[in-house]
Amino acid sequence: MGSQGGFYQSKEFLDLVKSIGEARSKAEEDRIVLGEIDTLKRRISEPDIPKRKMKEYIIRLVYVEMLGHDASFGYIHAVKMTHDDSLLVKRTGYLAVTLFLNEDHDLIILIVNTIQKDLKSDNYLVVCAALNAVCKLINEETIPAVLPQVVELLAHPKEAVRKKAIMGFHRFYQKSPSSVSHLVSNFRKRLCDNDPGVMGATLCPLFDLITIDVNSYKDLVISFVSILKQVAERRLPKAYDYHQMPAPFIQIKLLKILALLGSGDKQASENMYTVVGDIFRKCDSSSNIGNAVLYECICCVSSIYPNPKLLESAADAISRFLKSDSHNLRYMGIDALGRLIKISPEIAEQHQLAVIDCLEDPDDTLKRKTFELLYKMTKPTNVEVIVDRMIDYMISINDNHYKTEIASRCVELAEQFAPSNQWFIQTMNKVFEHAGDLVNIKVAHNLMRLIAEGFGEDDDTADSQLRSSAVDSYLHILSEPKLPSVFLQVICWVLGEYGTADGKYSASFITGKLCDVAEAYSNDDTVKAYAVTALMKIYAFEITAGRKVDMLPECQSLMEEFLASHSTDLQQRAYELQAVIGLDAHAVESIMPSDASCEDIEVDKALSFLNDYIQDSIEKGAQPYIPESERSGMLNISKFRNQDHHEASSHGLRFEAYELPKQTVQSRIPPASLASTELVPVPEPMYVSESYPTTTVSSASSDAGSTELKLRLDGVQKKWGRQTHSPATSTSSTTSQKTVNGITQVDGSNTSNSRTRETYESRKQQVEITPEKQKLAASLFGGSSKTEKKPATGHKISKSSSYMVEKSHVPKSSMEIASEKKAPIQQPPDLLDFGEPTVQSNAPSVDPFKELEGLLEPTTEVASAKNHSSTAAATKSPDIMGLYTETPAGIHNKDDGDILSGLSNPPGTHMLGGTTRTQVAQSSKGPNLKDSLQKDALVRQMGVTPSSPNPILFKDLLG
Amino acid sequence: MIKAVMVMNTQGKTRLAKFYEYLPVEKQQELIRGVFAVLCSRAENVSNFIDAESIFGPDSRLVYKHFATLYFVFVFDSSENELAVLDLIQVFVETLDRCFKNVCELDVVFNYSKVHTILDEMIFGGQVVETSSSEIMKAVEEISKLEAASNAITLIPKSASGWRSR
């Protein structure tokens, strides 16, 4: 086809592409494509279409589908094309079906037979096309139909076929390991293939197999090592060289495999040390691919049994990565550092400033990678700084996916390493405030529990300090306009439980706030429910304390609203609140003991405390209880009886079967209170204790039943919901919990807590004094080693200053070269102009990595730059293709040659050896220039000039 | 393994899309749009890597390279090396360039099937099978030759009903 080719498609297709290219809106594009679909529908079903036309229609269909429109009407035609004798048509058919269909599509059945036939074809291209379809379209059921042929093809004389057969076979293994497990040894055989391409391809499935089961491939370590050695020693054909590296992709695959095999295996690892060390030495760190191999070496070294010498080389390579100014390399450096840090944690300290630079880089990818690294190296000493940074970043981004991730990481780190309660609560507040709807509800429950339990030490003062600080901060936060629901739930719960505990705030103040919350978030039932329960607690504590309860007017109106609410849950809570307010202090105290949310409830499953009562009732003529198992068929009767019984005991929805009549508290609590325990399980263990005896459920009215249904759902996510479901007894547990509650705990260790806080603050201050980065470095990499960090900074400064010198030096030298080169550059025809915008975006400006390299050897830098120019000049040979192989310098320059190209010849940089090649192509080689001009002329003929609405269409990739 | 290869221009128009795991057309479009949205928001002179988990689900990375008017995007999982994939893009584009001599966006559009052929020689079923540009070229040239030959023989159109009845 060549450059002149490609335009032999019909004018129609050309017009289609053109008009789509010029479409100004998605709607316009859609209209054009729909028109095209209509045309195709009509044409494709005409009889006697020439094959060439048919082929083009199918390509157009593929194109249409790529633009996101349904082309399913044409699938059958694509399937038919695979039956054709003509290779071209057949291949187009296969291409189309692999793009159109999936392995479960109905039409597959029409193809399997063709595939079978084609796999046996004499023409290897037909076989390849069929194998391509095998990869994509064969599912577990159809594997047996083609498996024998594919296995046979593993020994095909053509290496292209062997390669593809291996991949097809690998695909079978991925889809259904069991159906090919007896043939897996074939992969090992192919490893010894004469063709390096086939061997390289075999590494892919072997990598997968070894990932799954390391041990059965340990015997291959020696083979892999010797292959790697041969590759590194350039024993492979020249064709596999890439940017002067011998078969780098194969090296990378092999290193990956070795990393797996050597992991935790000293003996296997020892076999690898030499070759990996060799590669470290040989790798050319100035090319992208060389660095890719280096990176893979680091991964390998950090995975296999540690070897000090290799670790050292790895550390060197990492520092080179991190010092580079290429974002890609720094990214890899950070990643590699994260791997190596597990083995030698001390390495991080050398690179602290580089890490911080990455953290402050505008590049998001790099930033995130750095956060990942920080996450891995978090310790109690640096948790504050790291989490603060993470939260700052979390606030700044919009990407919900990553926000969730970073929020959960913050929470995890905070829970694991929190230096103080206060800090923990502040951190959590921040996380909730900014990512509340994204964090797991469990986190909220953990926070509530932490506030309720304290940090587990017997230190009541500290705990109550913690609580009042939480209350303070929450009251403050409540003034913010829009808070996430989960956070509001926590706030309501804490305010209800501890809002009035320290006497700082009056009940009316807190209840006022709670009412505001319920009103402000009136469409969130869960928050309202939490608010009502919190109100109930506040009032209960007031009553217990013997104060008179004055319900605020707004609160009253709120209650009235809730009493008539559509949400049964809210209704119940409102009724409960009403009921509680009407009780006397003693009763209220047993319902709502203050700060008892964490007390364990002892469950007397046998309900032994009721024995007296039962005895009493039976003596009075009541029916004895018949266990559920024994009363099949009698259900209705017993239910009826139960209801009868309840009606006697109190109003409405009674269903407690066994109650002590004298306990007013219990009898007056509406049974619905069960519900509330599920939603707010923590504060009312009391209710928990009353939960459903089996009979109650059956006798519950529809109302209660529905609530229960709903609440079950809620209960799923509740941390402590489990308790609620267990049938429990009331009185005994209530008292027990009260006594536990009443115990005053040892007081006096509060000093320790305040001390922690002190140090925390002092550290903070000290941190603020020092320059920002040093401070950050110090806090991240061990606040203790203050002495260590200073030399490090000094080092950096000296480095950067010399760097500056170098910088001013390098451009100058390259400028000279540039000026030398100006003339040939100007010559290229106008095509070059189109490419120009590319340049800025692509050429990573003057490659600073190179400069850093030059730092070490400034003279070589210049020399190499000169070298570039001479290469460029030398490449005026007529053979352009030859350039790839014959001018290694040009090739190897590709990325770091920007010194040249960044200044003088921007459009060339993005391609391999671009600088030199483009110039030569355009200035010295006639035919090619003509080609380009012809192409351009043709393009213009088609009616689209670069100045048309969409000139971009015609920009040369290479300029 | 490589999950997807996409080529799109700077305006977000898809020029080539190949997914190595089956995805319905709508999903493909959604992913392409997602990728493009991220690509446009990237500043210049930043890394070529993007964390793609929010678009493609867990364990997915994305490497892109910007050539003139086109973005070349490869999506893959942790079994590949980012820098190496960056060079794989390079190999792909180099091969395109050898094939089309100064490849431009139009070449990719009009030689749709040929671009697919080149890609198929490099990546097969989501695995990298060939990384040598000259080997790929050899294979592609051979295919073109044979196709041309077979095309010459069958230039006389057979009726569609003819092969339908076979």
TrEMBL record, chain A:
It is found in: Endomembrane system. The keyword Membrane applies. Residues 718-805, 859-889 are annotated as: Disordered. Keywords: Golgi apparatus, Membrane, Protein transport, Transport. Residues 41-581 form the Clathrin/coatomer adaptor adaptin-like N-terminal domain. Residues 755-775 have a biased composition (Basic and acidic residues). InterPro entries: Adaptor_Complx_Large_Subunit (IPR050840), AP4_complex_esu (IPR017109), ARM-like (IPR011989), ARM-type_fold (IPR016024), Clathrin/coatomer_adapt-like_N (IPR002553). Residues 737-754 have a biased composition (Polar residues). Belongs to the adaptor complexes large subunit family. Adaptor protein complex 4 (AP-4) is a heterotetramer composed of two large adaptins, a medium adaptin and a small adaptin. Subunit of novel type of clathrin- or non-clathrin-associated protein coat involved in targeting proteins from the trans-Golgi network (TGN) to the endosomal-lysosomal system. This is AP-4 complex subunit epsilon.
TrEMBL record, chain B:
It comes from the Eukaryota. It is found in: Cytoplasmic vesicle membrane; Golgi apparatus. It is a peripheral membrane protein. Gene3D superfamilies: 3.30.450.60. InterPro entries: AP_complex_ssu, AP_mu_sigma_su, APS3, Clathrin_sm-chain_CS, Longin-like_dom_sf. Pfam families: Clat_adaptor_s (PF01217). The keyword Protein transport applies. This is AP complex subunit sigma. Belongs to the adaptor complexes small subunit family. Residues 1-146 form the AP complex mu/sigma subunit domain. Its main location: membrane. Keywords: Cytoplasmic vesicle, Golgi apparatus, Membrane, Protein transport, Transport.
